[in-house]
Write a structure and sequence with these properties.
Layout lengths: L8 H9 L5 E4 L15 E4 L9 H9 L4 E7 L9 H8 L5 E4 L1 H8 L4 E6 L9 E5 L7
Parallel strand pairs: 1-5, 2-5, 3-4
Antiparallel strand pairs: 1-6, 3-6
Length: about 140
């Protein structure tokens, strides 16, 4: 039995195979999961029905398992700040969100370093986040 919040075996497997610098894409329900991501990445579909599972729920689970050193988000076309960004900041204090223009975000999500894509059914738009896995320092 596992003690962490993250229990999903396919996600744990993909994270276990990833390392420092690998990336995890957690997009909203409108995101083109297959064409807008690295085809070699593990794809896990958690989009059960509208609103289940949300991006923030998936993010919370991933954060319980791996350190994150950077986060990129999809910028809105009008330059406004989506409300979900405040939730991202709350879940990842100390990690700056780097906004990328929509097509630049798609390009970043297709990068060969994207090891895992977690498809959600998040209904809020521009709720896409691309995480870079950090390091766990050695114990003293």
């Amino acid at each position: 039995m596992l003690r962490s919040k993250l229990l999903h075996p396919q996600i744990l497997d993909a994270l276990g195979k990833a390392g420092h610098g690998s990336k995890v894409l957690i997009p909203d329900g409108n995101y083109p999961f297959t064409t807008g991501s690295n085809p070699a990445a593990a794809h896990v579909y958690l989009n059960l029905m509208p609103g289940v599972v949300t991006v923030t729920q998936a993010l919370e689970a991933v954060l319980s398992a791996v350190p994150v050193e950077a986060a990129q988000v999809m910028a809105t076309a009008d330059g406004s700040t989506p409300g979900i960004w405040a939730e991202f900041r709350q879940l990842m204090p100390g990690i700056a969100l780097e906004p990328l223009e929509r097509f630049a975000f798609y390009d970043a999500a297709r990068d060969p370093n994207v090891a895992l894509v977690i498809a959600t059914a998040e209904q809020r738009i521009y709720a896409n986040i691309l995480l870079t896995i950090g390091v766990i320092p050695p114990e003293a």
